Amino acid sequence: MGTEYSGERFLPEKCVGEMQIEHFQRYQFAKVFVTDKVVLDAACGEGYGSNLISEKAKQVYGMDLDEETVQAAQLKYGNEKINYVVGSVSKLPFEDHTFDVIISYETIEHVDENIQQLFLEEITRVLKPEGILIMSTPNKAVYTDRVKGENRFHIKEFYVNEYQDFLKQKFQKIELFCQYPSVGYFIAHANEVVQKENKAIDIKDCRYVIAICTNREIEIEVDMTDYAYFDDSMYYFLNATVHELERKLISTKEEADAFTARQETSIAQQQEYIKFLENEIRKHKEYEAHLEKDIKELKDYIESK
User: What is the pLDDT of residue 3?
Assistant: First the structure.
């Protein structure tokens, strides 16, 4: 498996635009909570995020199920502050109460309900009593239902209320944050910056839900403007993709029409040939009947002599 690009696992060198921003934004947000902390990045993938939070954390452990991926991450990012280890979310390879902060981004939806429950149990086992869990997942109502889509890598997605109920099993304090794209349209002079406040969004309308979970009182004061990013590359990428699909559709229709025309011509030719054969058969039968008459007349003549 390793770091082969599947379209799902994030690779900094191969992912740009929206996907790049989403991952970078989440880990920049997490850095607020990890200063001088011992942190687990569960299902860390190629290790990019673990490396980012190591800028603030005391110690970071990046864990992934795939051994080849872990080895590649250790070679690429490993240092005295970061260790990459092989492990499963269903059985975390760490002692009880090891971590101040556990980060799990876009992981929980990749496993079934049984493993989700085991993962939650394991999180609370290895997290310190006063520790913090930072976990994100797609909001099924927007990520899947609204676009009538399906991610073949996802096994059990959550609606927002389901996600809250799931986390409440182990955490008393849960604060939810929205992560979502927003498309704007502007008219401005060249090189002019146009600013307008973005409208507030309901948690049920966000694309991803980031939960901050703990069992202690915690005040979260974060200036969200620091984590807003603008990038139009995905907008134009999608437009280019749509145009390419339109060209392919037109080309496919033209090929289908040409094939249909050829088929219709071939059928017409075959029908004409069938008529020709039927006419030849009719002529042959008429000839046979005439021949039989001549033979009979010849026999009658011979018998009369």
Answer: 46
